[in-house]
Structure formats: C-alpha cells, structure tokens
Design a protein that fits this description.
Blueprint: E1 19-24, H1 27-43, E2 48-53, H2 55-59, E3 63-67, H3 76-100, E4 104-108, H4 111-123, E5 128-131, H5 143-150, E6 153-156, H6 161-167, E7 172-174, H7 179-182, H8 189-195, E8 204-208, H9 213-233, E9 238-242, H10 249-253, E10 262-265, H11 269-275, E11 278-282, H12 285-292, E12 297-301, H13 305-314, H14 322-327, E13 334-336, H15 342-354, H16 356-373, H17 378-394
Parallel strand pairs: 1-2, 1-4, 2-3, 4-5, 5-6, 6-7, 8-9, 8-11, 9-10, 11-12, 12-13
Helix pairs in contact: 1-17, 3-4, 4-5, 8-11, 9-15, 15-16
Length: 395
Amino acid sequence: MKKDVSRPISEGLFPSECEIFIVAGEASGDFHGSNLVRALKRIQPESRFSGVGGPGMSKAGVNILVSSSDIAVVGLTEVIKKIPKILNALKTVKREIRERRPSLVVLIDFPDFNLNVAKYAKRSGIPVLYFISPQVWAWRKGRVRTIAGRVDEMAVVLPFESAFYEECGVPVSYVGHPLLDICPPVENRTEAARSLGLGTEGPVIGMLPGSRTEEIKNMMPAMTGAARLLVERYPSARFVLPLAATVEVEFIKKFIPNELSIEIQRENLYKYLNACDAAMVASGTATLEAALMETPMVIVYKVSGLSYRVGRLVIKSPYIGLANLVAGGGYFAELIQHELTPVRVYTEIVSMLEEPSVRSRVRKGLSRVRLRLGESGALDRTAALAASMIKKQDS
C-alpha cells in the first residue's frame, strides 16, 4: 500500500485547466494548506484552487468559499454551539463540489468535517487525498474503516503513521513533516533575543495558547497567572505571544491583565520561538514547531469538563502532545485539564530554567523530535502525489 513519492515532480504534471478543492478547518491546516498550494503551483502555475480555509490559503490564491474560523472548534460542548454553522458550511462545500467538479479534493486534518466531505466527493467520483492524518491511532481507531472507504490516498506526516495505515489496508504515503520545509535553522538564543529587542537581562518566555477561541479562553488564565509568578522570581523576564493568523489581537488582549507586559506578534513565529528560553505551548502542531526551534516547553491543554471526561474514555495514547508522541516518551511535562494551574505552569518553567536534570531531559526530547521527523521535502512530495492522482484521473 505504501507509495513511492520520491520521483521528480515534473512527472506529475497535470492539465492547466484543472481545479483543486482544498479543505482546512483551523489555523494549522490553513498554514499547511497555503504552503501546499504554493508547491502545487510550482508544478502547474495555472491550476485553480477553491475551498475552505483562512487568510493564509487566501493569500496563496485559494478562492475561499467558507472561512475556517466559522467551523473551527475544540471539544464536544464547543461543537454543539457551532452545529448550525458547521452544517451550513458542509452544505455549501457539497454544493460547490457538485457544481465545480474539481479534479481532486484535498483534505487537511479536521476529521469530523472532512470525512463527511470525503464521503460526498467519493460518491461523486472525485479522487480524495487526505494530507495530515487525523489522530485515529490515538483515539476512535474505528474511524480507519471510514477512511478506507472514503479516501483514495493518505499522505501522512508522522513516521509511525505509515505502518498503522498499512496494517489497516489503507493506501498511504509517508511524505515527511511539512514543518521541516518551513522552520529556519536554529540561531544562537541570546543573539536571536537581542535582534528582536528582547534584551538578555532575564529569561524570555513564550506563550502559545492555541488558535481557537475556546482554547484561548481555557488556557490564557493559567498562562497569565504563571507569568505573574514568573515576574516575581525574574523581574527582568520578557513574555512574547506569537499570535495565530485566525485570532484577532483585540480578542487576545481581553485575557491579558494590565499589569503584565506581553509582546504580541503576528510575524516571525520561529524567530521568536528561537529567542525563548522556555515556553508554555498548547497541545498541537505548535509543540512540534517549538521542538524544531529547540525551545524547552511545557505542554498544556484544557477543554470543557464533558469533553475531557469523554476524551479520557476514548484516547488510548499515554501522551497528548505531538512532541512527546514523536519523541517517543514523556520528555516534556504535560499539564492537562485540572492540572493546568498557574502554579504548576510556573513550577515547570522554573525547573526547565534552573534544574540541570530537567534541562537535560528536555534537550534530549528536542533532539529526538528533529531526528525522528526526518528530512525536508514533504510539501513537494505531497504535491507530486496530488499531481499523479490528477493525471491518473484524467488518463
């Protein structure tokens, strides 16, 4: 089932008049989707793109029919509030696929919505490429049967996912992780902080509360509470908050107390991560970004009480953070739900800054993440795979 995606991109050229429908339901998907579109345009500059996404995909040239911010949610109770918008978005997507008849549908993570799109596309005779797998290997493994019936090809980005899908009989290609195409080389931390005007008198602490409103509401109180405690211990500490493109600055400011000075940044995420001596990072793709920039981190997450109780019943993985899952162990502390308190976050940050044994463990984890993610080129390999699927469909 595993495909060879190492062939030259030129072999996958597809017709210039083709349209690709792409669906990304949240900020990280929009980010990866925008870069995939650019890779596809390198193969065929005149190809057209439409679908669901955010500002990144729009800037890359995608005709956005539904904004990802309208449907991005986390947790069961949060989903209930957005059901009308989600159903309306799904109706719009199906109508557009029916009328446009794209040459390929590309789905990026966001499984509950995207597997419905996959079902409709498959029934309509349109090939489906799923880029960045849902975490079916961690919870609700039964969904793999649904994927097998609705998806023509999985393009997976984590090294252990390929074997999982092969065992389940799903066509799969391991393309590598797209962050390796994007993250710049790591700089000297002190020099990076100085170049950003952050100074070198005290530690620089990163705050990454996620890209969805519910995540931010749930996690910012613990982060800002920890920041207050850290200022007491390190009066010269600086705090930076790299903000996702889908989040308004005024919204995030609602959660920052007046007495705290936190630098909010839209640009240069990786440079700011590189400058951080430690960071509090919401579980998700951001943990891999922090790891690739060699930023010591504590992983945090919190959802509604109901979502958490249900999650505990179905999630089988011992870790929630992608950085720990890729590294293959608990190298980074995880503060989940009731454990996410200002004091606990503060304690973990201090231990990373001051305790040699903790620093050593974290550094080992950071090295293992980079080693296990492999080589760059994921976006070009995925673009080549997409091109070959379109070419096969048209032949």
